[in-house]
Amino acid sequence: MNKITKAILPVAGFGTRFLPATKAQPKEMLPIVDKPAIQYLVEDAVKAGIKEVVFVTGRGKRAIEDHFDYSFELEKTLVEKNKMDLVEKIREIDSLAKFSYVRQPIPLGDGHAINCAGHLVGDEAVLVMFGDTLYNAPISPAQQVIEAYEKYQCPIVGLSEVKPEEVSKFGVIDGVEVEPGIYDIKKFVEKPKQEAAPSNLVAVGIYVITPEIFRILAEMKEGKSGEIRLADAFDIMLNSGQSLYGKKIEGEWLDTGTKFNFIKATLTLGLKDKEIGADLKDYLKGWCDKLEK
Question: Structure pTM?
Fold first, then answer.
C-alpha cells in the first residue's frame, strides 16, 4: 500500500464573509496570532507525512504563493539586523513541503476545484483540506483521516458533531458506526434543512479521496446546485455500491469560515502561544470580571 504523501488545498474562494478585509488579500492569509490561517493547515498536513502540497488558487491569491516561497530580500534584511530568530521562522515556511499551484479559472464548485489538481496527483489517494478548517487537537486531523484510509482503503470524510440547528450549513452524513468514531456512510446530503437532516454529523473539510473520485469528478456535469460538488461525487460513488467511510475528528474544531469563529480560533490558539499566552489569559480574566459586573 502506497503512503499518502500529497495534499490538495483549494483556496480559490473570494472570502466574501470577511469583506472588506479580503478585498485585496486572500482570506486564507488572514493572521491567527502570528501565522496566516493556511500555514496551520500546511503544518498539520506535514505532521501527517505529506511531502507535496498543491494549492488550487484563483485571481488575487498571489500572496499565498509568495508566503510559501523563499524571500531573499526579507531574509537578507533580517540577517543584517541580527534577527536570527525571525530568520529561522521564515526559513521553516518554504521548507515545509514541495509546493505547486494550479488555477481554478471559473468558480464552478469544490469538486471542480479539486479536479483542477487531478493531473498533479496521479493515480493515487490524496489528502484534501479546505482553508476554513483548523483544529486544536493532540493528534493531527490529517493524520486521523489518513490512518482511517489506511485501515479501510476507501475515501474518508472528516466529521464533527454540530448542533441540530446548524446542520443546514454543512454536508451531513447518514451512516452506521462500525467502531468508535468510524462510520460506514450510506448517504451524503449537502446542506439539508434541519428537519430533513439524517444526523448531526457533518463534513468539516478534511478528506482522503481516491482515484475513483477524480474519475467521477472528471465526468460530472453541473449538479443540482449548478456546480460540480464533491458531495455529488460521493452520492454517485455510493449509488454504484462503493464504500465511503467517515472519521469523527478528535479535538476542537475551529471553523474559521465566519467572523465569530475566526476570533474564537485566534483566542484559542493565542492562549497556547508561548509568547503571549499568559498575558492573554490574564487579559481575558479581566474581561470576564468586567462582564460579570
Answer: 0.91
What's the distance, Cα to Cα, between the start and end of the chain in Å?
Answer: 61
State the burial class of residue 200 (Cβ atoms within 10 Å of its Cβ: 0-12, 13-18, 19+): middle
Count of positions (residues) in the chain: 293
**Rounded distance, CA 189 to CA 234, Å?**
10
What are phi and psi for residue 180, nearest 5 degrees? -50, 120
What are the structural domains of the chain?
Answer: 6-257 (3.90.550.10), 259-293 (no CATH)
Please give the pLDDT value at position 225.
64
> Where are the alpha helices (H) located in 15-109, listed in sequence order?
37-47, 62-67, 72-80, 84-94
CA–CA distance, 160 with 172 (Å, rounded to integer):
10
> pLDDT grade, residue 246 (50/70/90)?
very high
Q: Is 32 helix (H, G, I), strand (E, B) or coil?
A: strand
Three-class SS state of 68: coil
DSSP 15: -
> Residue 198: which of 159, 228, 229, 226 has the closest Cα?
159
To which H or E segment does residue 133 belong?
A: strand 133-136
| Distance separating alpha carbons of residues 210 and 148, to the nearest angstrom | 13
